[in-house]
Specification:
The complex is a heterodimer of chains A (about 260) and B (about 260). Chain A has helices at about 1-10, 10-20, 60-65, and strands at about 40, 45, 50-60, 70-80, 85-90, 95-100, 110-120, 130, 135-140, 145-150, 155-160, 165, 170-180, 190-195, 205, 210-215, 220-225, 230-235, 240-245, 250-255. By secondary structure, chain A is mainly β. By secondary structure, chain B is mostly beta strands. In chain B, the strands form five sheets. Chain B has a four-stranded antiparallel sheet, with no helix packed on it. A four-stranded antiparallel sheet of chain B has the order 10-15-12-13, covered by helices on one side. Classes of the chains: A mainly beta (about 260), B mainly beta (about 260).
């Protein structure tokens, strides 16, 4: 009986029901489990607006943990409106690797958006791997040293052989969820929130009386200067922004 | 439940902002902030009555922070339960901070007349009862260009003891120990990292206790603070603990 309840609870309809009523909600779309050997990525933010450049640090997970030689990574970069800017392959990986994302790298674009990293290999893998690179993204303004923040979620996946993939793994609920950021913003001269739509559909959300929306794969930078109680109301089950706080000429970046 | 901590250092100032509210629920005024520290092989508990920033936050300034203290939210009644074990072992006072997403406080470091950096931090009770080892790459968050790279290693262990354990800087490719340091349990340990250790093949490894490794880089008065993830967060498939255990075995063989 217990296992029948479990099967129903984990079925597509069961997950929808759980998420609708808020009973043990399932945050991630489990479709990725149908694909063998996959690499899951966050939608990492990049910025080249207002003098920003972005530094990305990542590990060779297949090499370090699974001793798989000659693995490589695919990185795909998108604008805030989910338009593909470029795709690169990096082979000959070290255990730790670094990439500078500035406007020259992004074909002259001054703006912001997201990127994904997927670990790939041409080798046959006789396991059922699910890996995710937590990674670190550093932000620098006009050549200052970078303020780093780690990966924040699970948004897209690709099979390690590169043949299958999808994005928008985070699910939504029928009802709105409130998420209040657990920090005070009173001491800062300026504060910005960087949101990414982690779902497969357009989402709407609000902060106080201000309403926003993001298309699938989209991102948005919102100025919340002067607000202290920042509560985000959304049907998305996991909508956590990256925070940029400014004071004098200095700034700080962290995830909520 | 979660514990929180600050940083007492000659290199940076720190402060801790602990929210009184859960990220999806209103403030519960009966929850107060308590400071715990070791005194005569017992946990000593102090109610920090005056440390209130406003109705939503407790602010723990540098004058209350030392590297042996930890902080938690509890009601007066819950703290009284601590008496029953004669303050001889940390207990899971309550589930007030067991939330999803995690309940976190803002740990901010700053330099006088310079920059600031923070992350949303917590030390879950589940880590307090465990021994083990930490494995983390050094170059993921440190920078060769920085004026100073500081490793901060926080351990909280349930028993009120300051026991020594080893902190090793290991080159995985050459299988050599580059340096050994000593850390204390129930303490925030601090190490200045040599520039030559900041290479893709160099890892931090501890031999007896776990903890949270926090990476702080200072350059031209700018500062960056972020923690790394434990290796098992990179692997989501079954058998991940076996994979991590094999990798840690490799490090254990190098240090033994």
């Amino acid at each position: 009986m217990k296992s029948l309840v479990k099967i129903i609870g984990q079925s597509s309809l069961g997950v929808k029901l759980r998420n609708s009523i808020g009973y043990r909600p399932v945050i991630l779309n489990l479709q990725y489990k149908k694909v063998k050997n996959i690499s899951i990525s966050d939608a990492f933010p990049w910025r080249t607006d207002n003098g920003y450049s972005t530094k990305f640090k990542y590990s060779d997970i297949l090499g370090l943990f699974f001793k798989i030689e000659n693995s490589f990574v695919e990185l795909t970069f998108y604008t805030q409106n989910n338009k593909l800017v470029k795709k690169i392959i990096v082979s000959k990986l070290n255990y730790s690797n670094e990439l500078l994302i500035d406007k020259d790298f992004l074909n002259g674009i001054e703006g912001y958006g997201v990127f994904y990293i997927f670990h790939l290999s041409d080798n046959y893998i006789d396991e059922d791997l699910v890996i995710s690179n937590r990674c670190y993204v550093g932000f620098s303004i006009k050549g200052s040293s970078s303020s780093f923040v780690h990966g924040n979620g699970y948004v897209g996946y690709q099979s390690i052989d590169g043949n299958h993939g999808s994005s928008g793994l985070v699910l939504s609920s029928l009802f709105k969820n409130r998420y209040r950021i657990q920090n005070s913003f009173l001491e800062f001269s300026k504060s910005e929130l960087f949101f990414v739509n982690p779902t497969s559909k357009k989402i709407n959300f609000s902060i106080g009386v201000s309403k926003y929306s993001m298309e699938k794969g989209g991102s948005i930078l919102i100025d919340v200067t002067g607000k202290d109680n920042i509560s985000i109301l959304s049907r998305c089950l996991f909508l956590r922004p990256i925070i940029f706080n400014y004071k004098d000429k200095f700034f700080d970046v962290y995830h909520a | 439940m979660n514990f929180f901590f600050g940083i007492k250092s000659l290199n940076v100032d720190s402060k801790l902002t602990i929210p009184r509210f859960k990220n999806s629920h209103p403030t519960r005024p009966e929850y107060k902030v308590f400071q715990l520290k070791i005194n005569n092989q017992r946990w000593e508990v102090n109610n920090l009555i005056d440390e209130e920033l406003n109705k939503d936050f407790f602010k723990i300034d540098g004058n209350l922070i030392d590297n042996g203290s930890i902080f938690c939210l509890a009601t007066q009644e819950e703290i009284l339960d601590f008496k029953n074990n004669h303050y001889s072992k940390l207990i899971n006072f309550n589930n007030y901070t067991d939330t999803s997403p995690s309940f976190r406080a803002n740990l901010q470091v700053s330099i006088k007349d310079g920059g600031f950096s923070s992350y949303q931090s917590e030390y879950p009770f589940s880590m307090v009862t465990k021994k083990g080892s930490i494995l983390s790459p050094l170059s993921s968050l440190f920078s060769k260009d920085a004026d100073k790279n500081i490793l901060l290693l926080k351990n909280i262990y349930e028993l009120p003891v300051n026991e020594e354990f080893g902190v090793f800087f290991v080159n995985l490719k050459t299988k050599k120990i580059l340096k050994k340091e000593i850390a204390l349990t129930n303490f925030l340990n601090e190490y200045i990292i040599e520039e030559e250790f900041i290479k893709p093949d160099v890892f931090l490894f501890t031999d007896k206790y776990i903890g949270i490794p926090i990476f702080c880089s200072i350059q031209d008065n700018y500062i960056s603070l972020e923690h790394t993830h434990p290796p098992h967060e990179y692997i989501m498939s079954d058998g991940r603990f076996k994979v991590i255990s094999e990798l840690k075995k490799e490090f254990n063989e190098i240090i033994s």
